[in-house]
Amino acid sequence: MKKSLKSLRVVPVLVQAVLVAVWLTCVSSATAVASSPYTNVVVILADDLGYGDLGCYGHPQFRTPHLDTMAVEGVHFTQFNTPAPFCAPTRASLLTGRYPARCGLMTNPSPDSTPTADAAHLPESERLLPEILRDAGYATGMIGKWHLGHREVGWWPAARGFDRFLGILYSNDMRPVRLIDGQKEVEYPVVQATLTKRYTEQALEFIERHRDRPFFLYLAHAMPHRPLACSEDFYHKSGAGLYGDVISELDWSVGQVMAKLKAAGCDDKTLVIFTSDNGAYYGGSSGALRGMKGTAWEGGFRVPCILRWPGRLPAGKTSDGLGTTMDLFSTVLAAAGTKSPSDRVIDGRDLLPLLTGGTVDSERIIFGQGRTELATARDARWKLHLLAQANAPQPKDPSQPKPEAPRVGKRDPDGVTLLAPYDQPPREVYPGLRTGDETKELSLFDLVDDPGEQHNVADQHPEIVARLRAAFETAKQAFAADQ
């Protein structure tokens, strides 16, 4: 009996010891989480912004002081390419780290086109950046254009890793243009003139709400995709037409995000990336490059890309290294200390070693698609066109009268979604070079000596043609096998 009483007295002591140990473990874990270093990530994606559309990339009229400052405080690329010259495939590559031909989305989902386009979406088997980061403890938010599938709710951002979503499900000229909050329609027709401002306000709210924990914010602006629209604060203020007004508001938005990060105490632990989904459309600028959005010329693929991470990336650096949209996937995961999926091929590379002193990989070869199939292969110097490429339409006779009808494009206006129809840039305002040799299959260009792709030098360099063609065929087979 005495032994039993002694045992009973020991049990509470042991219980107390266990409870104290558990409590200490919890406190220790909480303290470790609170004090552990982490990296926030903000990816800002413009829509149809050309390589030459920013001041820091040489535009003589468009004023972009905030983006120029971001470039001064960070790194900007001169050879950054998208994998496709139009919207959805590039966005798929950004969130999967894989070429469009590998991740399964090579076309634009569209609700007002063919049944096939209406059903197009990023396959559910793909592992998306927000899903990986959310599993790693990040708050994930998306504000803006999705364009990775719209017909089924299960294809929307809220079902693909984003805790928060406000935006449109496809391009702002596709009908109907509906604003979605989470999984609910909250505005139709959409007042596009206020989209940039409202997207910015929502982005600032997201940063404020999650200032004390790691977060991933994907801010995918509608602009400068047509129809161009901006708020009254910027309309007719730039002195560079409606396109210039839109660029000014886009730059303002970037400035607001940067200021909010500083005010929230997140600046030094946040990697901010700014880029575009493809080259410029009419009214924009491809810089000194040939072509525009929708073409396999450099004007369709090459875009601005600026990265800023105080204390981690050098300030004021210009990188001539070859980068792709898929690299942002790998770079973000590396910055977050999270590994890429190991059960599939990831085409993206972590850019951080290159940006912090690493050497340029002159042997790297990247590929670009045309409308529906792979079309180009290029390395740091040479670019091979595997398919014939149509020449740009020549400018019309300036003595002819200008059209008087609104420039609404191929789709009719949808409620108040088309603003300032007479201010939309006409097709005469071509963004890139129109000149150059006609392109046939296996045309080769020297992008160092001839960045405007004017002279086909395939006959002078058959060994380079053979090398790039072999890499192209190998990649094409690999992509097909991965489907």
Secondary structure: elements and pairs:
Elements: H1 2-35, E1 40-46, H2 65-73, E2 75-77, E3 80-81, H3 87-96, H4 100-103, H5 115-119, H6 129-135, E4 139-144, E5 164-167, E6 179-181, E7 184-187, H7 195-209, E8 215-220, H8 241-263, E9 270-276, H9 298-301, E10 305-308, E11 317-319, E12 323-324, H10 325-335, H11 352-355, E13 366-369, E14 374-378, E15 382-385, E16 443-446, H12 462-481
Helix pairs in contact: 3-10, 7-8
Biggest sheet record? 10 strands, mixed
Backbone CA Rg: 25 Å
The shape, in one word, is globular
Order of helices and strands: HEHEEHHHHEEEEHEHEHEEEHHEEEEH
| Order of strands across the main sheet | 7-6-5-4-8-1-9-10-2-11
How many β-strands, per DSSP? Answer: 16
Query: Count the helices. How many?
Result: 12
Distance between the termini: 74 Å
CATH structural architecture of the domain at 39-359 = 3-Layer(aba) Sandwich
CATH homologous superfamily of the domain at 39-359? Answer: Alkaline Phosphatase, subunit A
In terms of DSSP E residues, the strand content is: 5-15%
The CATH class of the domain at 39-359: Alpha Beta
Describe this structure in words.
This protein is an alpha/beta fold and 483 residues long. The chain contains 12 helices and 16 strands. The strands form 3 sheets. Strands 7-6-5-4-8-1-9-10-2-11 form a 10-stranded mixed sheet, with helices on both faces. The N and C termini lie far apart (74 Å). The model is unreliable at 1-36 (pLDDT under 50).
